[in-house]
Design brief:
Layout (H helix, E strand, L loop, with lengths): L7 H20 L8 H5 L6 E2 L1 H20 L8 H24 L10 E2 H25 L11 H14 L2 H27 L1
Antiparallel strand pairs: 1-2
């Protein structure tokens, strides 16, 4: 099916991605993914430790994107190379640095469900393929002029402001507090009735 890029494989896989997203959205109303501490302790089946589970789940982000990227005809152009660098920095942080910084109680039981790992593999494989194929092959707008395009400049400014400043730490702390309160409320509601 050709409808977005003209590439049959890409466009068909994009439809698969949209269907998968809809299925995940619907399933999220009926349960919680079993990964890490508070969410993974219940449930049955084989599980990994939090750190190992996270590394294994995020590994396609470090593998799929560069493998697809190098096959693209625009792989050596400056703008796609910039996006490759940004991607690799981001997923090195997500897949390797974040698990090293996780606090896990010594002797804690394994709590990262394998179905979450498999869902992560599928999601990140699609994500990596879509972005790498479009950036290095299918997208023709990523010329050197993109660096002066307002969309790029505004996006880079937002990224710099909201992810690389104390503002990001404040937002992360607010989200952490809100999540903690929501978990306490759910646990209280669960134990009361």
């Amino acid at each position: 099916m050709q409808w977005y890029t003209g590439n049959v494989f890409y466009d068909t896989l994009l439809i698969v991605g949209f269907i998968y997203t809809a299925l995940i959205l619907v399933s999220s109303f009926f349960g919680t993914a079993q990964y890490g501490g508070r969410f993974g302790a219940r449930g049955k089946g084989m599980k990994l430790g939090s750190k190992l589970g996270w590394v294994v789940m995020e590994s396609p982000g470090l593998l799929v994107f560069p493998l697809v990227y190098v096959a693209g005809s625009n792989a050596l152009e400056p703008v796609p190379l910039f996006f490759l660098c940004i991607w690799m920095i981001h997923y090195t942080n997500r897949a390797l640095v974040t698990p090293l910084l996780m606090r896990v109680q010594p002797g804690a039981q394994s709590s990262f469900a394998l179905n979450v790992v498999f869902a992560g593999w599928f999601t990140l494989s699609l994500h990596g393929y879509f972005n790498a194929a479009y950036i290095s092959e299918l997208g023709d707008q990523y010329t050197i002029g993109w660096f002066s395009d307002p969309r790029f400049i505004v996006g880079l400014a937002f990224h710099s402001i909201f992810t690389q400043t104390p503002f990001c730490a404040i937002c992360a702390r607010c989200i952490q507090i809100q999540t903690s309160l929501a978990i306490k409320y759910r646990m209280a509601a669960y134990s009361n009735g």
